[in-house]
From TrEMBL:
Keyword Transcription regulation tagged: yes
PANTHER family referenced in this protein's UniProt entry, alphabetically: ARAC-FAMILY TRANSCRIPTIONAL REGULATOR, HTH-TYPE TRANSCRIPTIONAL REGULATOR RV1931C
HTH araC/xylS-type domain boundaries: 217-306
Keywords: Transcription, Transcription regulation
Keyword flag Transcription: yes
GO MF term (any one): sequence-specific DNA binding
Protein name: Transcriptional regulator, AraC family with amidase-like domain
Pfam families from the UniProt entry: DJ-1_PfpI, HTH_18
């Protein structure tokens, strides 16, 4: 299913807030994802914070296609004012077009627009650290969280902005298209895979990679490429060209996790979509993840996640 992605560019938008997520989605599209990028604006030729103007943007439409993503980059400095004409127009438009099937993604100060539109009421959210107090004033019913690079709550996602818009885009790509595609996008963008440990349901394909040790990365690459294979510690150590004992030390030191735990989390992430859909018998799903039995799968899931298996009983 193709996903329409609409960027809304207000006058004074931050170019990196726009270009980072747009480039991540463009690369994902080239690698096989079904994203269709569109560019909207309440102004005919909005000028970004760097003084460059964009042409050929579409006006804000009366409605959006089903299951669209709506991405709003932040605004620079004094331009991050929800009372400006363009901001007021965008806030009114958001109230008009918002539906539960849409996904709203705010970058940096764009959370102020969503808050003023009432879309953050009852939801967890965040924004740039300098704007947290302002967001709390605009959206007193929202649960504004400090010191978070991004927050996902249902169909609404928000980030601290600037480079964290790329982090959020990678997480959304992972959830929509699978973690392996998101990792391929991150590699092509040559980004440091930062992730907030408190963000729920982070993919282990992307987590535990914020280090620079090449041997550990080689092992992680091999596990991600073939999660269902048998991976005894000796086989992993052979890829790293170190002893099993030394590999365990390297993993703990640089990735912050034991090799076995990392492998199990990769296995679970690999088959989680199958568990949610539950279109196959549990034994076959377990086999697809490299588990010896459904009982083994249940045991490892409870160990790593602390909950019962998702999907139908």
């Amino acid at each position: 299913m193709s996903i329409p992605v609409h960027f809304v560019l207000l006058p004074g938008f931050l170019l990196l807030d726009f270009a980072g997520p747009a480039e991540a989605l463009r690369i994902a599209q080239r690698l096989g994802a079904s994203f269709q990028l569109h560019y909207l604006s309440p102004a005919p030729t909005p000028t970004c914070a760097l003084g460059l103007s964009l042409n050929d943007l579409q006006a804000l439409p009366d409605s959006l296609p089903p299951n669209s993503w709506l991405i709003i980059p932040g605004l620079a400095g004094a331009l991050a004012d929800e009372s400006s004409p363009a901001s007021r127009q965008t806030i009114a438009w958001l109230r008009q077009v918002w539906r539960p099937d849409l996904r709203l993604i705010t970058i940096c100060s764009a959370a102020l627009l969503a808050g003023a539109a009432g879309l953050l009421d009852g939801r967890r959210c965040t924004t740039h650290h300098s704007l947290l107090a302002r967001l709390r004033q605009l959206a007193p019913k929202a649960r504004v969280e400090d010191e978070r690079i991004f927050v996902l709550d249902g169909q609404i996602a928000s980030s601290a902005g600037i480079t964290t818009g790329i982090d959020l885009s990678l997480e959304l790509i992972a959830r929509q298209c699978g973690p392996q595609l998101a990792l391929a996008v991150a590699r092509e963008m040559v980004v440091w895979l930062r992730r907030d440990a408190d963000t729920p349901q982070l993919s282990p394909f992307l987590a535990y990679r914020s280090h620079l040790h090449p041997a550990v990365h080689r092992v992680q690459d091999a596990l991600a490429a073939d999660p269902a294979a048998a991976w005894p510690l000796e086989a992993m150590a052979a890829i790293a060209c170190v002893s099993p004992r030394h590999l365990a030390r390297l993993f703990q030191q640089h990735a912050g996790i034991a090799p076995l735990d990392y492998r199990q989390r990769i296995q679970l992430a690999h088959i989680e979509p199958l568990l949610l859909r539950r279109e196959q018998p549990l034994e076959r799903i377990a086999e697809a993840g490299g588990f010896g039995s459904a009982r083994d799968l249940r045991r490892v899931w409870h160990k790593q996640r602390g909950t019962a298996l998702p999907g139908p009983a």
